Amino acid sequence: MTHSTIDPLRSVTIDPGTLRGTPGCYRVGRSTTGRWWLVAPDGRPVLYKGCNAVIRQSVGKAGDNRYFQWVEQTYGGDHRRFTDDALAKLRAAGFNGLGGWSFLFTPREGHRERGMPFVEILPAREIAGSEGMLLEPKRDASGAIVGTQSSFNIDVFDPEVWNRIDQRCRNEFAELRDNPNLLGYFSDNECTYGQPETDVAWTGKMSDLAKPPTAATLLQRCLAQPEGKPAGNFAWNWVLARHGGSIHQLAMDWGEEFLDADAFRALTDQRQRYLASDAYSADHAAFTAVFVREYTARMHQAIRRHDPNHLIMTSRCPAPPGQLVLDAFRSCFDAGLVDVLAMNSYRANFHARLEQFYGSTQMPILNGEFSWCSGHFLDWGKYLREERFDETEMADIRQRGRMALEQAFAHPGLIGYTWFKWYSGKEFTRDAYGMATDQPFGAVVNNAGQINTFNDPLFRLIHARLDGIATGQIKPYSVEGLQPVKQTINRAATST
Q1: Choosing a second label site near 248 at 20 to 30 A (CA), which of 180, 206, 264, 387?
Q2: Spatial CA neighbour of 454 closest among 429, 468, 433, 474
Q3: CA atoms of 321 and 315, how far apart (whole Å)
Q4: What are phi and psi of 129, to 5 degrees?
Q5: Is residue 333 within 8 Å of 363, Cβ to Cβ?
Q6: Helix 247-254 × helix 278-306 angle, to 10°
Q7: Please, which residues have CB within 8 angstroms of residue 244's CB and are 6 or more apart in sequence?
């Protein structure tokens, strides 16, 4: 065998002018052929193959989670043996990294010093709390407003939110600043950004949309915040500065009728009128850039104040966040505020999903969640009913899963992926399925810690090929003519 067959990554040469990060820590860089790579502390190019939620509950707190119960019965307080066994099973399946939520309730030295890269998620929404989030109306079954509820974004203009985030970084991340095994930080999980369209390259003119917005978009939502909310105060000052300081002029420019902020809130929340004029669209596009920049810059400051060395990644996007947001991410990337674009995907056409993120940004991408347990790969209704798949169905799932993952790693932006997840737990409750090891479900081990024998052979086969696929020495697996999976329920798939 030649060296390139033994180690395809020997052929990779990183362009030093593209490297981002601190020497001695994980970095990202582009090869001389134009592909992005994760670069290990020793300078070697690597692909991250991680697994989420390698976890046990605190001793004595297993609750009704069957997997946690098994772990406690098997390991008790011996965290080191649990960690050793979990990492051995991961490595045997070809994984080389630990994903989000790993070892949350065990002494962290058990994995932080073991040579396997790990990631941290900064849970900004959790830290902000309901009072630190953008708010929207809460409605009862009849549609009547009965209060407020959090939306999926923090109030980026609230200084108290950033004080809390800074405190979390100080408490949890300062000690990691020199840890060579830390890959980096996801800046929150599955945020949305109030865009009316995400899956197409919409550039901000709402008259170009196939249908008008069905909810208040980002600027309108910020303007409709309850009185005194920092996001509302900032948005009103910002937008009035663009319209001569006059609410009357603003309403005329947008083709609406409102006399003051209270009337605007009523228009938005009570009448459920969602602005869509081209004049509003232009303001919304500009405000989106401001909002994303504020979020990213403040997150960068909070992390860098306590850890100047490790990679900073965007929030793990559950779907393409919209072209305006992607453009803003690229601007932040150019400014050195963020290093990696993070995205989740449960799509059979994983490669095309990557291109939706990469096409305009050209940023390195780390996938935060992937599994072939979604309606894109199998009958989701059958999966939810915990029915067993027959051999023909499982062969089809294997084909789709292998093709999706291998073709994804042929994409020049992808530096790694993360399987969701390590354990089954409460995912299935019936012994016939929850304890099964030969059925497709989204875990490496079942509720008794046994390796899933449907997934494991696929992991071993695919993981061994990914380096060669990424370097172009191996062609990714491909099957022609596969039709969408027939579903026995209406909602065919996860949205990610």
Answers
A1: 206
A2: 433
A3: 10
A4: 75, 170
A5: yes
A6: 120
A7: none
Count the alpha carbons within 13 Å of 288 in the hemisphere toward its beta carbon. 24
* Residue reference for tokens 């929030």: 315
- pLDDT of 162 strictly over 60: yes
48 membership: H or E segment, kind and range: strand 48-51
Q: At what angle do helices 350-361 and 391-408 cross, to 10 degrees?
A: 20
On average, the pLDDT of the chain sits at: 92
- Predicted confidence at residue 192, as pLDDT, reads 86
Share of the chain above pLDDT 70, in %: 94
pLDDT tens-digit readout, 341-384: 999 999 999 999 999 999 999 999 999 999 999 999 999 999 88
Residue 112 backbone phi and psi in degrees, to 5: -70, -20
Query: For the chain, how many residues are written?
Result: 496
Least confident of 50-64, 295-309, 456-470: 50-64
Contact 264, 299 (CB under 8 A): no
Give the span between the Cα atoms of 92 and 278, in whole angstroms. Answer: 56
User: Helix, strand or coil for residue 186?
Assistant: strand
Task: Write out the two tokens for 16.
Answer: 């030093």
At position 337, the amino acid (one-letter code) is L
Q: Domain coordinates of the chain in residue numbers?
A: 3-122+173-198+278-470
User: What secondary structure letter does DSSP report for 208?
Assistant: G
pLDDT for residue 4 is more than 50 = no
Nearest residue to 196 via CA among 118, 274, 101: 274
Taken in order 458, 423, 93, 105, is the CA torsion positive or negative?
positive
Please report the pLDDT score of residue 428 as a whole number.
56
The whole-number average pLDDT for the span 130-159 is 91
Q: Which tokens in the block code for residue 14?
A: 């990183």
pLDDT, tens digit (0-9, with 9 covering 90-100), for 60-98: 888 888 889 999 999 998 888 999 999 999 999 999 999
Q: 357: buried, middle or exposed (CB in 10 Å: 19+, 13-18, 0-12)?
A: buried
Distance of alpha carbon 119 from alpha carbon 121, whole angstroms: 7
CATH class of segment(s) 3-122+173-198+278-470: alpha beta
Strand pairing class (118-121; 36-39): unpaired
pLDDT attached to residue 49:
98
H helix intervals, 18-134: 66-75, 79-92, 109-112, 124-128
Residue 426: which region, alpha, beta or left (left: phi > 0; alpha: psi -120 to 50)?
Answer: alpha
Residue 418, H or E segment: strand 414-419
Q: Are 107 and 98 in contact (CB under 8 A)?
A: no
**Residue reference for tokens 């191996």:** 474
